Amino acid sequence: MEMDTPIKLLSRVGKTTAGRLKNLGLEQASDLIFYFPFRYDDFSLQKKISDLLPDEAVTIKVRVQLIATRRSFRKRKILTEALVSDDSGSLKVIWFNQPFLTKMIKPGDEIYLSGKIDESRIQMVSPDFEKVKAETVHTARLVPIYHLTSGITQKQLRFLLHQTLPLMKSAAEFLPKEIIDKYEFPSLARALVNIHFPRDAASEEDARARLSFDELFLIQLAIQLARKKIREKKSPSIAFLEKQTKDFVAGLPFELTPAQKKCSWEIIKDLQKENPMNRLLEGDVGSGKTVAVALAMLNAALNGYKTVMMAPTEILAEQHYQTLQKLFSKQSFKIILFTSSKREINGEKLSKKQLLDKLGEGEFDIVVGTQSVIQENVKIKDLGLVVVDEQHRFGVNQRKALVEKNNEEIIPHFLSMTATPIPRSLVLTLYGDLDLSIINQMPAGRKKIITKVVYEQNRLEAYEFIRRQIADGRQVFVICPLIDPSDKLGVKSVTQEYERLKNEIFPELNLGIMHGRLKSKEKEEVMMKFKEKEYDILVSTSVIEVGIDVPNSTIMMIEGSDRFGLAQLHQFRGRVGRGEFQSYCYLFSENGSPLTQKRLKYLETCSDGFSLAEKDLELRGSGEVYGTRQSGLPDLKIASLTDVETIKIAQLEAKSLVEKNGITPELASALKKLNLSLHFE
Ligand code: ADP
Ligand code: MG
Question: Which atom of ligand 1 lies at the shortest distance from residue 445's CA?
Answer without folding.
Answer: 25
